[in-house]
Amino acid sequence: MVRLGFIIGFIALIGVLLSGLAAYRVHDQELTLDGIAMARAIDVHASLVQDRLTERELLARVASGLFHTPSMIKADMLQPLRTSIYAFKTDFVVAGWIARLKPNELDAARAELAKAGFSDPTIRNYDDSPRDTQSLTQPIDVVMDVEPRNGQTMAFPGRSLDQDPILGPMFAKAMSEGKPVASDPIRLLRQDGPIGVVLAAPVLPDGAASPAGFVTFSYELAPLMLTNDDLSLFSVALKDPRSANGELIASDQGVVSSRITNPEGPSPSAIRTVTFGGRDWSLGYYAKTNAVKRAAQTAAIVAAIGLALTGIVCGLFGYVAYNNLRLSREIQVRIGFERRLTAVIDELNHRVKNILAVIQSIVTRTLRHGADIDGARELLIGRIHAMSNVVSLLSESQWQGVKLQGLFEARAIPHSERIAVSGPDISVSARAAQSLSLLFFELASHSDEGLSLVGKHPHIVAHWEVTGEDPDAVFHFRWEEFNTSEATRRQDSDFGVILLDRVAPEALGGISKRYFTDVSYVYELTAPMQTVVDMTERDRTEQLSRR
């Protein structure tokens, strides 16, 4: 008994060490995978933002290049551009023609604005207050046309923007550099309007040395740079160029607000710089989930499962070893019974080890490739339940095999009511039953994850047949899901792909393929009947039952 206790304690110690090592490896892998996923997602988002900004800047360049008329004192300068503007992009808030007028051109500008029907044709300040135009000696920037024309924008023409604290410096910079320039973040349309930026492109008439005006496009900041998917791994904040410690963030409704960064608060996971309007903009990416906590939770689950399996193995070993010790005392009078029991124990150990190895593989791969803890737990429970069902069926048949149709029972796989099963009534070996049970569960569990093309759940047909004569008979299995397509069906999980393409075919010594037709998703498996039935395993079981 002391020796038995020492052995069990040694096995328990090895199990604890292996469980700890597995938890450590899972924790390290989860952190690495989360880091890689975060970095890739951030790079993709920053690239998309840069592409979006480049397209808007190209629109401003194209629009400014379409001005060729000698006179710029017109209130319909955007008229010939409207078709081109809307064909290129339509997400700007307002586009404008800002004419750079000399003092002697202001009267003509007023007359032009009055002729165009704008609500106030007088030349006034950017805040709509009166402006003394009699004392002007330098050109000023006056709004002469807007697009679209509506109740809000009709009041803008006539305002001079050269004294605006944000737009004035932008026009001066665009004029000096001769290329599109973006403004600081500014309220659009009204004092409480959405926060955005204005992009001004100087217009140089043919042969002119200085701009005759500017084409401007206003964009909301949220969809331009800060829009985030609800399921994204991060939130995005824009470094406020007006404040050294300020950031601009967007709410779930797309409302942009500013905040002061806390030096003691969480720092961004990454910072990316994009270029727009002749200036750099810094985007800070803050992770929405705690990768360390998630990795610790996953590692804890792996450790708990490892300890549980260690307890099961120790319990089984202790039970079997104790019975062996007890029976060894009766060996003189019950030697025949002891031989039979030893053979049964050897077979039990063989089958238990196989089952534990399969379960350990299921646990490791499910938790390694799970999208989240809850999803991984559901898949893990379902896969282990499928294994439990096939073991129950094998136990009921004294490990003589399982009827293939019995693997499609409702307690074994989900959505069994939608599966039309057909094929000859054959019994498969224990090894084949374990592989096919997991295979059927994986196919069925993914069959309902995508929406069908006609708004219905997929209809599934499972059919098998045996062709040829012994010993060259071949087993053919075909799984087909109708009312689905590659565009609507969710991709198989990493574990599922490995099971469908490698584990199940290799276990049966066959080959498999999966593909999409015009109306369905198909999985086919072909294997020799000798490995599907496995007569050697059946003969060994029958010999044990006769001893």
UniProtKB/TrEMBL annotation:
Domain of life per record: Bacteria
Catalytic activity: ATP + protein L-histidine = ADP + protein N-phospho-L-histidine
Localization terms from the record: Membrane
Enzyme superclass (EC): transferase
Keyword terms, alphabetized: ATP-binding, Kinase, Membrane, Nucleotide-binding, Phosphoprotein, Transferase, Transmembrane, Transmembrane helix
Coiled coil spans: none
Pfam families for this protein: CHASE (PF03924), HWE_HK (PF07536)
UniProt xrefs under InterPro entries: CHASE_dom, CHASE_sf, Sig_transdc_His_kinase_HWE
E.C. no: 2.7.13.3
GO process terms (BP): signal transduction
Domain CHASE: 142-232
Annotated TM spans: 299-322
Primary location: membrane
Keyword Thylakoid found: no
One GO cellular component, as annotated: membrane
Listed GO MF terms: ATP binding; protein histidine kinase activity
Protein name: histidine kinase
Organism for this UniProt entry: Bradyrhizobium canariense
Lineage: Bacteria, Pseudomonadati, Pseudomonadota, Alphaproteobacteria, Hyphomicrobiales
